[in-house]
Amino acid sequence: MSRLFGSVRSRATLGATLVVAVALVTAGFAVVLALRSNLTAEAGTRAERSARAVAFDLAARTAYEDLTGLDGDDGPVQILDEDGGLVAASEDLERISGTATDEVKPRPAPPAPGDDDDDSGDSGDSDDSDDSDDSDRAEDSGGSGEDLAPGEIAGETTFGNGSATIDGDTEDYRFAAVDVQTHDRGRLTVYAGAPLAAEHSAVDTAQTAMLIGLPLLLGVVAGVTWMVTGRALRPVEGIRREMAAITASEDLARRVPEPGTHDEIARLARTTNETLTALEASVERQRRFVADASHELRSPIASLRTQLEVAAAHPELLDLDGAVEDTVRLQHLAADLLLLARLDAGERPADSLVDLAALAREETAGRTGVVVRTEPAQVTGSRGQLGRLLTNLLDNARRHARETVTVTVRREGAWAVLGVADDGEGVPEADRERIFERFVRLDAARSRDDGGAGLGLAIARDVAVRHGGTLTAGAAPTGGALFELRLPLVEEG
Q: Scanning 38, 156, 242, 291, which has its CA 20 to 30 A from the CA of 396?
């Protein structure tokens, strides 16, 4: 299970389905509530219309038995007097709830004055009982409480829900209560009901449709999301497979497929291919570096071995000075290779303050034909690495200068600029970047004894970059080569 939902495709499908489910359930509840409210209000309107029709007939002095609204065709009707007693009701009304009284049979008309004298002794008790009962009913009569003139119908209508049984059929109803002030029967309250069967049926139908349709719709959403995310992520799987194949074969010349779209996956594929290109170039550079280093090391080692073999056979022929020179050259080459290896490994320079002017004076001390012009300029970094950079530039300038090498240090905006210029033949513009490559020597006819191994300028460029600066080659005012080192300046104080 955890593996299934560990994929982006599964999580996207689950997330989309849950969001749609929440939205649909919320919308479904809102629809059901709105439908129920509207249908209930419509039933209330019908009930109010029936109640006002009966109230209009009562205001017109229509007798109870002549009221057309009591036939039960439009719903149950009750008419209560101002004491809450039932004086008229729909035909065949068997049971009712939700109105001011659950009585279904009207009370008999009161006797005329003077009748039933024999029962007069009990009249006091009977009146007290009736008054108490009528008072209780009046509290629940649901009347509007408006002051009405004879023949006037109240403008306010009260509503309630209940049920009624007419001729054996029981239904839920929406009841409306309307007060009317009659001329001869006092204040009456008319209760009329409209059936809620349509409301219940519509709400049940809507709920059933949602219960059936919601899972189906969620299934469609899940399926579509699964298919869409699968199609969208298909290039990612292709990239993964190709990267796995590249890792297994170690063939960095291969590239992952790039989709023809302009989305994030296409950018991922392009970035991956750019990374592979850079990695291939790095590996090729390292391979070439190892090959060149082996070639450069082979010469002094072979020369030193030859001299030692000759000395072993003929001690009198030992060239001690040549052996020492080859050993020193081998030592310098090994030191250069070790420094390049540390730089390639990302060794960070120290964060100490270095005064380029003082460094220039220190490195040029004892060198003939060197002119120094400086002003104070402090930078941060490794004094040893920056000293090695300046030494390499001075050695390169000395090899190519006719007479003079000029070293300058100046401040230029936020940069400290160190320049090393010679009065030699200069560097052709087409080769001003190539000379910073490792083991590159422009003087092809020059012997290795006269020139270096082609690592000095490469080391200088790497040191400059590691210190957040740049090292460029250009033309000096005297016609020779000018190398300029730019490093971020540290303000004093």
A: 291
- CATH: 3.30.70.3280, 3.30.565.10, 1.10.287.130, 1.20.120.450. Which one for 252-347? 1.10.287.130
Question: Is-above-0.70 flag for pTM?
Answer: no
Residue-wise pLDDT tens digits, 441-459: 665 434 444 456 678 898 8
Give CB contacts under 8 A, 24+ apart, made by 218-226: 218/17, 218/20, 218/21, 218/24, 221/16, 221/17, 221/20, 222/13, 222/16, 222/17, 225/12, 225/13, 225/16, 225/17, 226/9, 226/13
412: β partners? 415
> Which two three-digit tokens encode residue 29?
């509840």
Cα-trace Rg, the chain: 54
Amino acid symbol at 454: G
Average pLDDT, rounded, for the chain = 83
Report d(CA 73, CA 174) in Å as an integer: 15
Using an 8 Å Cβ cutoff, are 205 and 193 in contact?
Answer: no
